[in-house]
Design goal:
Blueprint lengths: L13 E3 L3 E4 L3 H11 L5 E4 L7 H4 L5 E3 L14 H12 L7 E3 L2 E5 L2 H14 L3 E3 L3 E8 L2 E9 L2 E5 L3 E4 L5 H5 L4 E3 L12 E4 L3 H5 L3 H14 L10 E4 L6 E4 L16 H25 L7 E5 L9 E3 L7 H5 L9 E3 L3 E4 L4 E4 L6 E3 L12 E3 L17 H12 L7 E5 L5 E5 L7 H9 L12 E4 L2 E4 L2
Parallel strand pairs: 1-10, 2-3, 2-11, 3-7, 11-22
Antiparallel strand pairs: 4-6, 5-6, 8-9, 9-10, 12-17, 13-15, 13-16, 14-15, 18-21, 19-20, 23-24, 25-26
Helix pairs in contact: 1-10, 3-10
Length: 467
């Protein structure tokens, strides 16, 4: 029998009233916060961990995805804030060179340097941050999100922002106000993964290995029953330090084959423990069966299990699998990508690549239907949650949410990929919004989050080009 406990009436102190509050400090949230701060707005970012990075750091996904084209000769095509962040990490020695991922490429990175780079952005751009702060609930007034109740180290507190950007990864803000969300395909989501690092690898030997041979060894070892290796299509990436690799190898399901859901505590608890068991089994397999790993050891897993999919917001428009595969272009796109459609199912893994083309991501695909003064991190897509993973790329999240943090401006140039490895600049109409005008519109609640990157804004008496 379910019992209910009635909370007493509470009076919660209001600790901040920023122009913009960003919920979640992952790649998406950081990009949004920096974009808004560069428009001269007062920005507060709240994050449940003690660092920024989200899934790419806490979940140890450990790669920057979505910067490159797809085809015979992948090259970097996405720049803006994502490119800027990559360049700063490179200056700190925090990234490897791009490595192949099917028909495109990705860039492995060092998680600690990701945190350091994010910290530097928060400090230099004047973004206020509250780490170890969890969203409890959002509240509406007049059809707009008006108040966020959060749990800080001091207890329950309230934040009264003008604009809220939901970069939680789980649509937490939208969910708590009863906004429309979906959960995979009929409640079935993609499988979680416990990513882990392995140290003391003989890197020269490892880099000569054929990934297909490693996968054949995985399948053979799993069939023998000596190891529990449920996933045979695996990814192992070199780390910037030169003696560790990042292992994306596990597939977590319940014994009956059903998939744990990342917004259920009992499911997450099972996934964390099962993930560690699988990580240990794969690490033992690598040490015993794969050249270059004879003296290796497991360094650590992510701070949490890697979650590929939970809630998706029903936005004003949605990015469909057909949009991705047809390389659909839309006017006023916030950004674009060539990252493939990924589907990580309970028994198989499917990836669909574009060839020498990209698909556009529009601002309306980040604006939840019916939610005023609120922008969202991810684009909803169709299929069995497959196209969803096209928006999980670290670089694309950062670029896309940076645009959401910017003021809606029309005096800018939007960059598009024309399919021939050239960048085509398309001018937009003249109608510039400056920082002070943006703040005035925010105060009168007439401001809509959105717009594309590359906007020119005024900061005091100086003017600079935003990436």
């Amino acid at each position: 029998m379910i019992q209910n406990f009635q909370l007493p009436s509470l009076s919660i102190p209001v600790i901040a009233s920023p122009d913009v509050c960003v919920v979640g400090g992952g790649a998406a949230g950081l990009g949004a916060a920096v974009g808004a701060a560069r428009c001269g707005l007062d920005v507060l970012l709240i994050e449940k961990y003690g660092f920024c990075g989200g899934a790419t750091v806490a979940g140890l996904s450990g790669t920057i995805c979505g910067l490159h084209s797809s085809g015979d000769h992948p090259t970097q095509i996405v720049f803006g804030f994502a490119g800027e962040f990559h360049a700063r990490m490179k200056d700190r020695g925090g990234v490897c060179g791009a490595v192949p991922f099917g028909r495109t490429m990705l860039i492995p990175h060092d998680s600690f340097i990701w945190k350091e780079t994010a910290d530097a952005y928060l400090n230099t751009e004047g973004v206020k941050v509250l780490f170890h702060t969890n969203l409890i609930s959002a509240h509406e007034r007049g059809g707009r999100v008006d108040t966020l109740v959060v749990r800080c180290a001091e207890g329950l507190r309230a934040i009264r922002p003008t604009i809220v950007i939901d970069a939680s990864g789980d649509a937490e803000v939208v969910h708590t106000i009863g906004g429309s969300t979906t959960m995979g395909k009929d409640g079935v989501v993609q499988t979680p993964t416990m990513i882990f690092r392995v140290g003391n690898v003989e890197m020269k030997t490892f880099l000569k290995l054929d990934p297909r041979k490693i996968e054949a060894l995985v399948a053979e070892a799993d069939k023998s029953g000596e190891y529990h290796l449920p996933r045979h299509h695996v990814y192992i990436f070199p780390m910037p330090n030169g003696n560790e690799v990042l292992c994306n190898m596990t597939r977590i399901t319940f014994p009956d084959g059903s998939v744990p859901v990342g917004v259920r505590s009992a499911d997450l608890s099972f996934a964390e423990m099962e993930g560690r068991k699988q990580a240990r089994s794969y690490a033992q397999f690598l040490k015993a069966k794969v050249a270059g790993f004879q003296n290796s050891y497991i360094v650590d897993t992510g701070a949490q299990v890697g979650i590929r999919q939970t809630r998706s917001v029903v936005c004003q428009q949605r990015l469909t699998n057909a949009d991705v595969l047809s390389a659909r272009k839309v006017p006023g796109a916030a950004t674009f990508s060539a990252w493939p459609i990924e589907y990580h199912g309970a028994v198989d893994l499917k990836i669909s690549y574009l060839e020498n083309d990209t698909y556009d991501i529009a601002p309306d695909w980040k604006q939840p239907a019916g939610c005023g003064a609120l922008s969202f991190r991810r684009t909803r897509s169709d299929g069995l949650g497959a196209g969803y993973c096209t928006m999980l790329g670290d670089g694309i999240c950062r670029r896309c949410r940076h645009s959401a943090g910017l003021a809606r401006e029309n005096d800018h140039t939007t960059t598009h990929w024309n399919g021939r490895r050239k960048l085509d600049a398309r001018p937009r109409p003249q109608n510039r919004q400056r920082g002070l005008d943006v703040k005035k519109q925010l105060r009168t609640r007439q401001y809509a989050v959105g717009g594309a990157t590359g906007a020119m804004v005024r900061h005091g008496n100086s003017r600079r080009r935003l990436p």
